[in-house]
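Lecture 7, part B: from sequences to assemblies.

Below are the input chains for today's worked example.
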Amino acid sequence: MLTQITIPFESKENIRYSCNTASLFHGLLMEQLSADYAEKLHENALRPFSQNILPQDAGGIWTVSILTAEDAEKLVPAVTNLKTAEMLQKNDVLTFGAPEQQSVSYSDLFRRHYIMSDAPRLIRLHFETPTAFKSGGQYANMPSAKLILSGLAKRYDHTCGIHDTIYETLFDEMEQRVTISGFRIRSASFSLEGVRIPAFLGEITLRVSGNPTFRSYINMICDYAQYSGVGIKTALGMGRVKYEPIKP
Amino acid sequence: MLTQITIPFESKENIRYSCNTASLFHGLLMEQLSADYAEKLHENALRPFSQNILPQDAGGIWTVSILTAEDAEKLVPAVTNLKTAEMLQKNDVLTFGAPEQQSVSYSDLFRRHYIMSDAPRLIRLHFETPTAFKSGGQYANMPSAKLILSGLAKRYDHTCGIHDTIYETLFDEMEQRVTISGFRIRSASFSLEGVRIPAFLGEITLRVSGNPTFRSYINMICDYAQYSGVGIKTALGMGRVKYEPIKP
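Predicted structure of the full complex, as structure tokens:
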């Protein structure tokens, strides 16, 4: 089960919360959880949630996406029960509005792309908070189809318990059959505890060739990306993405 | 000797000449040359000139850059003697304005970067007409530091008669010591005889580490790029670039 909660908040001090402040909200979220469960989340490299902030005048919009039903049981109440919060780092107090919640099961996601639709060949991804990758141990701030999709494939498998994917074959296919046909991107950095992570923002259009099953798969994991995020540090506010299938 | 001629032109039919029309100006230029010399240019894969069009209302600006003194003898008069030209493909007649010409010798270029200046670590390149590369036999429309610089190094050597560069070492150094630290780019296509070549436009900031000699070299070839262009089909209007050293 994939669950997404969107919750607006107002700042007492009229502060506009930038996407970089998501790490503060990560801290806030951890404070609402049992120490055991927070510790377990911390140990899990592929975290079962992503969260991010979109700025608004005098506040922002907080989005938390949870990738498994088990984690949703713990994380959903932690978010939706919040009414106010002190933000000590900003000398501010936040008031949370009404949360909106939507869910989709993995089987619905599968059906939506494999059965219900004629999978489009063009997919536009809108990167709404700074997005970056690690490649060969280094930060990579310029996207490629393979960097975007290979991480999504692994995270998708991890969260829905698939263990038999032959990644070498899959990643080769991604490299051969998916190209970036259009883009409008710019460099952007994400500040995290005083460190500036080189990243990018903007839009990318993927062109997917190959058979309908492969096209369905790529569409499905790009739809999934709206919950998981793309690239590194998606639990700390990076890699928020919107999926837009482009119908011919 | 590097020579650049800039010549404005007016269109009788008030047509705005896009950067894609540079191939027509390539044809016009070839018509002004002896058949033997035009043939010789055609056979030379690394052409000793680049040319491109920047659009203006009711016309445009034609820039022709020539990379050797020998070729300048033939190409400069072919450009500067033009007063009018029929553009049959557009049912148009062009009137050329006064050409501006500037030159720099390779030794001056060398001195400017190696001796006169403390080579900056940041270089901004402004890609003003669609720019693309070939990599592994395929068009590449997204830039990398290596794609930009490796082609420049080879063209620089070719036009000033250097034969002893060990490219493997140089390209490794480029990959390790030059990163794209900032960018604002978008996809763009260049139309050439009915074919759309995927390309990009925009700005890229290179960060050069390493010793001063290497930094001077990278600055020098990026300055040279203003004459040679970057990437493929620079004789047909692609890959026009402006070099901007960023002083600390």
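Note for the exam: Chain B touches chain A through 14 residues (CB under 8 Å). Keep this in mind when comparing with the next example.
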